[in-house]
Write a structure and sequence with these properties.
The protein has about 80 residues and is of the alpha+beta class. The protein has two helices and three strands. It is globular and about 40 Å long.
Length: about 80
């Protein structure tokens, strides 16, 4: 089992649009390609706001294949 931690800095002026696009667009496409989400959250500090999520993969080959398929997806 592999856990993959992804962290993105998001900005107040487009935070709502970022969350909407991830929820309604990216998440759906990622799931179609076998992405398993363990957790998603937003972290804030005085310096920045981050969108954080953790993915679970059975092995590295599955992770690489899913990311390749996702990035090649015409809808993405």
């Amino acid at each position: 089992m592999i856990h993959q931690l992804r962290i993105y800095e998001i900005f107040e002026h487009n935070k709502a649009a970022f969350h909407e696009r991830f929820r309604d667009h990216a998440l759906r496409i990622m799931r179609r390609h076998g992405f398993e989400f363990v957790a998603l959250w937003e972290a804030q500090s005085p310096q920045r706001t981050e969108f954080v999520y953790v993915l679970a993969w059975p092995d590295e080959a599955a992770k690489n294949a899913a990311w390749t398929a996702f990035m090649a997806d015409g809808e993405w």
